[in-house]
Amino acid sequence: MNTGEYIDKLFSDYEDNKTLSDFKEELESNLKDRISYLQSKGTSEQDAWEKATAELTDISEIAQQLSLKKQKEVFADMYLKTRNYISTKRAVLYILFGGFLALGIILSVLSYLSTDNPMAGLGALIPFMIIPVCGLIFMGLTQETAGRYPFPWKRAVFYVISIAVILFGLIVFSMMFFTSEAGLPEAIATLIPFALPGLMLLVFLGLTEKEHRKPWAIKQEIEIMKHGELYNNPQKSMKRGLLSGALWLFTTALVVTLGMIFGFRYSLPLFLFAVAGEVLIEFFMISKK
Amino acid sequence: MDPKLSSDLLRGHTDTIVLGILWRGDKYGFEIYKTILEKTDEEYELKETTLYSSYKRLEKEGYITAYWGDETLGGRRKYYHITEKGKKLYMQNKKDWAFTQKILNSLLEESK
User: Fold this and answer.
1) Given B29, B47, B71, which is nearest A30 (Cβ)?
2) Taking CB atoms and an 8 Å limit, are A62 and B49 in contact across chains?
3) Distance, in angstroms, between B52 CA and closest chain A CA?
4) What is the pLDDT of residues A113-152, one digit of tens each?
5) CA–CA separation, B42 and B39 (whole Å)
6) DSSP state of B65
7) Do B53 and A62 touch (CB under 8 A)?
8) Mutual orientation of helices A60-78 and B48-61 as an angle, nearest 10°?
9) Nearest by Cα to A93 from A43, A134, A59
10) Tens digit of each residue's pLDDT (9 = 90 or more) over A20-54
11) How far does A284 lie from chain B, in Å, by closest CA?
């Protein structure tokens, strides 16, 4: 038996991973050196082999630790997240952008309610929503989490630009829709210079995106896919998708229709029912299992 | 009866022994092992498992770092390098040991 075979046999009970194979390589080169050292001191080949390998018999303890440690790390990363990824500076920025966004929403609702003119509300959204949303998206993309590496900031900037342009386009679209004489056709036309190129950029970024999840997160996902029964079944996940798609389409149609008749002030809260419906669908899918 | 080396006592200081050896230069596993053998006139056969556990522990705590050598012939060797943190620990452990030794000596003195 050569040293490589011997070491492989020693660790045959343990699942091979990077840490363990590194360790095995280290062990083997040391074992070889040890044997030739003993031989150079006059020990016979057989004795040298026996002496050197005798010490390795309880080495499997370490192997156990190595695999165990690996599992523990994954576990700690997932549930007992020991490291805090959000620095104070970032936390302040998150809160500022969040506050800015909330302020924007309040201001826009207030100006709409006080003037009863959707233009006023939408106008307020342009600076008060686009800036904080972009800020939050940038922060979110460049944020390292337990399961994901941060995006490079340059790429995050492109994402932010595309989303800012799309948001701007959507707001302009709504403004045109509410104010223009021509209504819908003109409003749709405004999608061409803003929302469309923004969307194209976003799709391009999405298609060329690299993997940002950490290795353990990818492994975990594969594991979950293997064991998870709920959405593993493509038919089931399709049913679920169709169900919630129908729910949102139905709610949106209802909101628009009722909004036209009674005013959006009364119809918008219907979306809350859709959220509740979503939760119920989830519950239904889980309980059916 | 000839005095015997207390393996148990020595084993408790494996980390410090390893750090002390690495202070004089980066070494790979077998070199460290050999140094210990030679220094103790082959009296002390530290179990390899004990040593490997020690490397893993020290590396995890950041007292040493490991890197692969660029040997092309035979297997690659994993070298260990002591960090500043490791040097500090070594100095502290040495101080602790000197202090313990002093206390132990006076305690053993009394029981005579």
Assistant:
1) B29
2) yes
3) 8
4) 888 777 777 888 888 888 899 999 999 988 887 777 888 8
5) 7
6) E
7) yes
8) 20
9) A134
10) 788 888 888 888 888 888 888 888 888 888 888 88
11) 46
